[in-house]
């Protein structure tokens, strides 16, 4: 595989260095201070995604990985290699097997995936291939119902979407009743130094209706070469797939409707936020009425999964609330956005390839 341009390569290596430093903050201070930054390298591996070299003190990642897969997948492999470094240099596992007990301990401390090497599927592939379990007929029907929601008849489309949500609730009731669950974490949207208010509103909507939990975390903004923030959501693979689809569908709907709305108006970016917040609130009120129309025993808007809460608490041991300042809003633009949001129907199937998660960067 050809090497990236020097500018892109520098950006990627700087991003890896920032992610390395960020990964250590989950460690106790005494252990964190024992870690020294390694060298980073991009290499055209043919048989692996990454490696840690004790002799060179170097973490190397596959060019194919960093150029053709999401940063989520890159970060998962990077964490695995950081765990190898930690096992060697802090836990002194020099004579342990490569994936022995000390390495497993390092993965636990760093919240790294001990299996993220060799032929183990990348996170992108697990999301793509594991979005609907073959034995779960309800989740397969959700995809078909969302396809029906593309009907030009609004009443039929809304009825199909309501049935899809009912089946999602049934699936999540079974997850709760079934005991042990497996969770993953992915980022939605792109890392940025600042995010508009509508992105926070959309994150809250996903938490309220789509059985995932979101956290805003530090992330490297490749275009700016600085650390910013990105939304990470956690949940079961089927729920992540649905929530990711809804996130991108709603985002595209807002952009499309805003383009039409502002065509004959001289409106600023701030008014776009008003319109987008209105769309999300209008869609939220529709979802609330859809859920509220169910019998009382099935009308839970949000199923609290204790296992998911434990997963979140373990993965993010240090969290803080982010509050934004109040902004002046144009009530008419907000109301027009609400009207548009009440017409929004999530349509078509939740299929692989609906949104590319491949690394995107202006190489410059």
Which key terms come to mind for this protein?
three-stranded mixed beta sheet; 364 residues; single chain; disordered C terminus; mainly alpha
% residues in beta strands: 5-15%
Straight-line N-to-C gap:
20 Å
Largest sheet, in brief, is: 3 strands, mixed
Instruction: State the helical fraction.
Output: 40-55%
Oligomer: single chain
How do the helices and strands follow one another from N- to C-terminus?
Answer: HHEEEHHHHHHEHEEHHHH
Average of per-residue pLDDT values: 82
Helix-strand category: mainly alpha
Q: Tell me the count of domains.
A: 2
Query: Which runs of at least 5 residues are low in confidence (pLDDT < 50)?
Result: 131-135, 295-302, 349-357, 359-364
Q: What is the rounded Rg? A: 22 Å
Kindly report the spatial arrangement of strands forming the biggest sheet.
1-3-2
- What general form does the structure show? globular
Number of strands: 6
Total DSSP helices: 13
3D structure, described in words:
This protein is mainly alpha-helical and 364 residues long. The protein has 2 domains: 6-127, 2-Layer Sandwich (Zincin-like); 137-341, no CATH class. 51% of the residues lie in helices and 12% in strands. It contains 13 helices and 6 strands. It has helices at 6-23, 29-32, 63-68, 71-89, 101-110, 123-129, 137-148, 154-178, 197-209, 237-262, 269-292, 306-315, 331-341; strands spanning 39-43, 50-53, 58-62, 184-192, 213-221, 226-235. Strands 1-3-2 form a 3-stranded mixed beta sheet. Helix 7 (137-148) packs antiparallel against helix 8 (154-178), helix 9 packs parallel to helix 11 and helix 11 (269-292) crosses helix 13 (331-341). The radius of gyration is 22 Å and the shape is globular.
